[in-house]
Amino acid sequence: MSARVESGGRLHFGFLNLSLSHDRLYGSLGVALDDPRVVVEAEPAERVRCDHERARDHAARACEVLDVAGAAVTVREELPPHVGLGSGTQLALAVLEAVARTHGRDAAVRDLAPELGRGGRSGVGVAAFESGGFVLDAGHPTGLFTTAAPPRGAWTVPPVAARHEVPDDWRFLLVVPDAEPGKAGGEEDASMRSAVEAADPGLADRISGVVTRRVLPALASGDVAAFGAAVAEVGRLNGAWYADEQGGVYRPPVGCIVDALDGSPAVSGAGQSSWGPAVYGVTDEGRAEDALAAGREALDAAGVGGDVRVVAPRNEGARVSETGQGKA
């Protein structure tokens, strides 16, 4: 049979803790988006066939861990890579799910994500693929941290500590400036380890307070203004950990864009998603057009071009459809 898998991007607001002084390390929070999306199709084959380089690598690994002969994999839509929207994890898991389904297998994405090199520090991307919504993961025991990166597959995805539906009328402004890609792969790993080894433990206490006393209550009560302000504060405090690694609390030119959005009544809070350069702004359906205009003005203020859109949250996981018998 053939299989089609569709999933959206995600925002990554930051981590609860990067200090080795606390019992648990990392612990991330973020939200699943309905757009932009990745769409992958697969059908059985005697070997791996795929014209998309990154997807081909994922397909080969998926066939290996699933113990199947091969698959013909096509990427119909993809997330912009290395801008902070979770393209790597969503593509890898979409390929894994599609290959598994076309062979009648259970993908077991949470168990197999580490085999594809995903879900090591943050569990937001895996949880977003599974069930969407707002996600807070539990991180890892700090005692497991090593100065050298662990081999692929030698970790488990952090468990979900809290998940909430995001109100249907909330929206997220996405501003992706024309800038150098965010950190990924070995560069990202080295920067994260450097940040962890130098992290101020006091910031973790402040961030935990913001999450428990502001982010989660605002989400539970549907207060978009309070939620936006709270996640923006989480991002700003996280930026203090990364300042040496990214050239400031926000990486250039994100700081200028965030500053411009902070002055707009159409946006309730703005920040950098993951390593950027994607910038998010929290808004709602009634302010969407004004938020779009604010995003374009923010790019102008920063003196750069880029893509601006307003997207809905996604309160469900990846959509999977199966048809026919496929081809040999």
TrEMBL record:
The entry's keywords: Glycosyltransferase, Kinase, Transferase
Pathway: Cofactor biosynthesis; 5,6,7,8-tetrahydromethanopterin biosynthesis
Superkingdom in the source lineage: Archaea
Reactions performed catalytically: 5-phospho-alpha-D-ribose 1-diphosphate + 4-hydroxybenzoate + H(+) = 4-(beta-D-ribofuranosyl)phenol 5'-phosphate + CO2 + diphosphate
One Gene Ontology term of the molecular function aspect: kinase activity
Domain spans labelled GHMP kinase N-terminal: 64-133
SUPFAM superfamilies tied to this protein: Ribosomal protein S5 domain 2-like
Presence of keyword Kinase: yes
Keyword Coiled coil: no
Gene3D superfamilies xref list: 3.30.230.10
EC number: 2.4.2.54
Family stated for the protein in its record: Belongs to the beta-RFA-P synthase family.
Quaternary structure, from the entry: Homodimer.
Primary role: Catalyzes the condensation of 4-aminobenzoate (pABA) with 5-phospho-alpha-D-ribose 1-diphosphate (PRPP) to produce beta-ribofuranosylaminobenzene 5'-phosphate (beta-RFA-P).
Protein name, UniProt field: Beta-ribofuranosylaminobenzene 5'-phosphate synthase
Biological source species: Halobacterium hubeiense
